[in-house]
Specification:
Strand content: 25-35%
Structural class: alpha+beta
Number of domains: 2
CATH class of the largest domain: Mainly Beta
Oligomer: single chain
CATH topology of the largest domain: Archaeosine Trna-guanine Transglycosylase, Chain: A, domain 4
Radius of gyration: 18 Å
Number of helices: 7
Distance between the termini: 30 Å
Number of strands: 6
Helix content: 25-40%
């Protein structure tokens, strides 16, 4: 596992099922503090982080936010007349929050970007995942299956393929959290294969 230099980022704190890297998802920004965070991000590199609340939010963010989060980039920002925004964000990378800082109205964290450890025989594992995933979709309408297959084939790396399949097929918060937090692709692929075979 490689760790990059510490950086600082605005963080939106959300409960529930996490977004995974390599996938796009809608996000609704309505709290004033997060409107400010979005405005700051849009004037910069269009990035912020999503932190997963593991209990009710408190002043001690170390105790209520998972140490692992997701760096996201804004793809579409639709501002509404009342100040709210509807976004499409894309998960960029898994990050680790090292400490919380800052005096802005929204949470700010120092973070390290984490790179997953890769396995050597990726083509064989990719083929197993592809077959198991497509077999699990046998009840999908033909037109949906064609779109899903096309999207699946756009990932030429194992990490992206795992993220895509997990994002599509895993619905529980605990399972999604595993795929975000676990940094070893071998472990993630093994668990995903077992899940698809059930």
């Amino acid at each position: 596992m490689e760790v990059e230099t510490k950086q600082q980022i605005g963080v939106i704190l959300l409960p529930g099922v996490p977004l995974l890297p390599n996938n796009a998802s809608p996000l609704h920004i309505f709290e004033p503090r997060y409107r400010q965070m979005l405005e700051d991000a849009m004037f910069g590199d269009k990035q912020f982080a999503i932190g997963r609340l593991i209990s009710d939010e408190s002043e001690n963010l170390h105790s209520c936010v998972s140490s692992t989060g997701l760096l996201v980039r804004v793809i579409i920002n639709q501002e509404l007349p009342d100040g709210r925004s509807v976004l499409i964000v894309r998960g960029e990378n898994t990050i680790q929050f090292t400490d919380w800082t800052g005096s802005l109205p929204y949470p700010i964290a120092n973070y390290e970007s984490l790179d997953r450890t890769h396995i050597t025989d990726t083509e064989h594992v990719r083929q197993l995942l592809r077959e198991s995933f497509l077999n699990s979709l046998e009840d999908e309408p033909e037109e949906n299956l064609a779109k899903i297959t096309e999207a699946l084939e756009s990932y030429d790396d194992l990490t992206g393929m795992i993220d895509f399949i997990a994002h599509y097929s895993i619905r529980t918060e605990a399972e999604r959290s595993f795929y975000l937090d676990e940094l070893c692709d071998s472990t993630r692929a093994s668990r995903l294969l077992l899940s698809l075979e059930k």
